Amino acid sequence: MKSIRLIITTCLFIGLQHSFAQDIKGYVYELVSSTPLWNTTIKNLRTQEIVQSDRDGSFKIAGQVNDYLVFTNPGYKQDTIFYYEDNIRRIYMTRDESLISIDEVVVSRMTDSRLAAEIAKAQNEGKAVDAGQERGGLRVSPSRLFGKKAKEARKNLALLVSEQEKREVDRRFTTQLIAATVPLSPDEIALFRERFRPTPELIKKASNEDLKVYILDSYKKFKSDK
Question: Which keywords belong to this entry (predicted)?
Fold first, then answer.
């Protein structure tokens, strides 16, 4: 009789454990645009397990009802949710407008349109001179010239513009163009592209034929260095 009760108790215990053990699933989005947020860090405070959201914003983490999950993503306000029922959760994160500093990883993830918008924003916040005609022409603003927010904006502007210029170079100085112009293997092309990367100034003024001539001249140097 005791053995039967023990078996029943054990089965109930295992059943309870199985009912609590589960995967918490969900999606992370940007609040305003509803864009999926990938590489969002999700941490279960009870288990200390950490996972990252996928490119479609989806995530899966071990947990159970009554767990707390913390969501963090550079440039967004940290959020904590209480998992109170077994269903797929949709988490909407808001941008942290108080953050001025922009991480290089965040910049590299931005779309072209978002990058252009951030450049315009940094240019406006970093301006030290106001050219408003209604107030008597040019005026220098000490708060914008020496303020922390303006300094951070000017610092971020350099990073943002650098990323924009890098993308402009990459769009034209492609592996396909190099492969069609000079006889290099894929491994050699990767090295060639890194060593002879054109300047943004050259890319802006060079025609397609100019760029091919540049690749041919650089190819001669590349082969002679070998």
Answer: Signal
